[in-house]
Amino acid sequence: MHTLSAEVRLAQARARLQKSRRWATGLLLLACTLFVAATLYAGRYPALAYLKAFSEAAMVGALADWFAVTALFRRPLGLPIPHTAILPRNQERIADELGWFIENNFIQDKPIAVRIYQAEPSSKFLNWLGCDAARTQWLPWLAKQIPTVLQTAKPEQTARFAAMLLSQQYSGEKIGQTLSDGLKLLKAQGLHHTLFDGLLRRLRRWLQNPDTRELLEQNLREWAAKIESDAPSTWEKFKSALKTSLVERVDDWAAAKALDWADGYLATATADADNALRRQFDAQYDLLAERLQNSSQWHRRLDAAKAQLAESPALRQKLADFWTGVQSWAAADVEKSDSLCAAQLEKLFDHILAQAREYPQFMRRADVRLSLLVRDFVLRYKEKAAHFVAEKVKSWDSALMVEKLELSLGKDLQYIRINGTLVGGLVGLVIYTVSQWLA
Predict the structure, then answer these.
(1) Mind listing the pLDDT tens digit for each residue in 218-237?
(2) Residue 319 to residue 164: CA distance in whole angstroms
């Protein structure tokens, strides 16, 4: 893995190229120096003829390889020699060949799919889910992304989509089964009690409101008056034993006490997990889910109401308001220390781990499906990837392309010059030696 910046790596590549160039050029200059010295003193020292042969062949090899290496990238000495500056002149053809080579030799669907399967991504994912770092670091972060995800869907768009989905995709039976599944899912997660507690708290706040109490007390007094007229034999006997003013006070007191009793009962139901009202709510909740799931009468009613509901502006507004409320609730919830979103994510993590331990074959099937998805993805897009590479290379400035290739390959190509100098010199020495023996 590269950890250095692009500028540093570029500077290092240029330094390596310059160093190898100096070595190759230095050997050429050394061969020239040896050739001149051997030529000047060969008459005085006959053995220098062997050095002359070596240096002469070394110069030829060095120059030939310099020409070959230089011709790849540019014209040697700027001369318009045929078949030089090979890379910049054939940039488009090289780009197409490079794209084809990558497509057919690197982006291969089956080997990539096999590597994905052998990597066992499901096991790695489960190990990540089970480690403490995922719970302490990533889980809060994931929870805080939920509002962001919800915000991507605008309330008006969500309402239109839900209405369209309701109208086109759902029959009365399917609507009922979907609602039933939703109710069962809420109960499986314990959220139906959260809903029940929320309803009780809202009802208590409504009962405790002074305006509400005054209205309900008035209704209770009217109800008592109705009892007086409907059942005189019972109520009138009670009233006859009391004065009228006292009766009115008793009516007010009874109404207040009735409301206080109702509020106290709701408070008890909120605190008591085994309250009769809560049990009745659970029973009615289950009954509603069962009827939505199986009742053909409910299905017919839902189907009859579907079209009207889908076109209802009021329904769309309610859906938009509901989605806005969900977004606001999620944004506020994730900031709490006892966030429900974070708790549900943790439950989801635990559920996945439990299911994986109980059904290990499922995780292997998940690996198979993931590898097949990758295979199909590669088959679909490998040609586009190759085309992208080719177009990218074609779009490079020729000088930029030459620089990139020379910095990548230039150091190794300079060793060709070095080897050409040494090998050429040795070959020349061998040829001269053999010629002397044959003479």
Answers:
(1) 665 565 555 544 444 544 54
(2) 12
Asked if 239 and 247 count as a contact pair (C-beta separation under 8 A), the reply is: yes
pLDDT tens digits for 70-83? 887 778 777 777 77
Lookup: tokens for 76: 């040697």
- Output DSSP code: residue 46: T
| One-character DSSP codes across 332-358 | HHTTSTT-HHHHHHHHHHHHHHHHHHH
Owner of token pair 């089956």: 110
Query: Which of 361, 379, 203, 223 is closest to 277 using CA atoms?
Result: 203
Whole-number Å distance between alpha carbons of 153 and 159: 10
Rounded to 10°, the helix 276-294/191-208 angle is: 120
Tens of pLDDT, residues 274-305:
667 767 777 777 787 888 788 888 777 777 77
| Domain ranges within the chain, ordered by starting residue | 6-89+397-438, 128-361
Reduced to 3 states, what is the DSSP secondary structure of residue 396?
coil
In contact, 164 and 321? CB cutoff 8 Å: no
* Residue length of the chain: 439
pLDDT digits (tens, 9 = 90+) for 388-430: 888 888 887 777 777 777 777 777 778 888 888 888 889 988 9
- Is 393 within 8 Å of 93 (Cβ atoms)? no
Percent of the chain with pLDDT over 70: 78
The C-alpha atoms of residue 172 and residue 181 are separated, in whole angstroms, by 14
